[in-house]
Amino acid sequence: MHFEILVEDSSGKTALEIIVPKIIGDKHTFNVHSYKGIGRIPQGLKSKSDPKKRILLDQLPRLIQGYGKTFAGYPAGYPAVVLIICDLDNRCLKTFRKELLDVVDNCSPSPETHFCIAIEEGEAWYLGDVKAVKAAYPNAKDALLKSYNSDSICGTWETLADALYVGGCQKLSGLGWQAIGEEKNNWAKRISPCMDVDKNQSPSFCYFRNKLRGLS
After folding, report:
1. Contact call for residues 182 and 188 (beta carbons, < 8 A)
2. How many domains does the chain have?
């Protein structure tokens, strides 16, 4: 099985390139493609934004259509699938999932496509494995880590910043989005190698893990 995995930011790519082999082993192949934000599904499924800006949902109809054509040309017996991972943020899960599936249904040819939605944000997957967080950051604030409820809507990256970053979320936010992005990449590099994919407490991570294993 070959997996094409799309994720909305570079820290997600960093994390997935470490985590995915833990889930599927070395008998399958995969690529992870990062984008520069999630954006929104374009009206009429016709994107008017510049593809070079690499906004995931803005380009989703074009991407799905492209993968459909590419996979159609693969040799028989070489299965391939697209997995798209994005944050729920403050959206309604049921409505958002339907909108995503409608994109696939309206593309022809359409590849086998699955959506894995991180609730609330990708950092929820780190917080689903407190032992990994503590292994990567021994001085992390235990009280904050223990008070977090898996996949709760609470400002997830802010919670992780308060637990890990000196000065917390307030100080990190004051440094701007570039600094936040760099710190998220640091979390990905340090926490992901420590994660036990079979013991993660995040329901959305477990959905992603089980989806990968079910397909492979």
Report:
1. no
2. 1
List C-alpha distances in Å: 71 to 26, 51, 68. Answer: 21, 21, 5
Contact status, residue 16 vs residue 205, Cβ threshold 8 Å: no
Buried b / exposed e over 46-69, threshold 16 CB at 10 Å, is ebeeeeeebbbbbbbbebbbebbe
Q: What is the pLDDT of residues 144-164, one digit of tens each?
A: 998 888 877 778 899 999 999
Residue 35 to residue 51: CA distance in whole angstroms: 10
Boundaries of domain holding 102: 1-216
The rounded distance, in Å, linking the Cα atoms of 58 and 163 is 33
Cβ atoms 132, 195 nearer than 8 A = yes
Point out which residues pair with 32 in neighbouring strands: 5
pTM (global) more than 0.70? yes
Q: Which residues contact 50 (CB under 8 A, 6 or more apart)?
A: none
Mean pLDDT throughout 45-67? Answer: 83
Average pLDDT, integer, range 61-74: 90
Confidence (pLDDT) at 82: 95
CA distance 201 to 19: 15
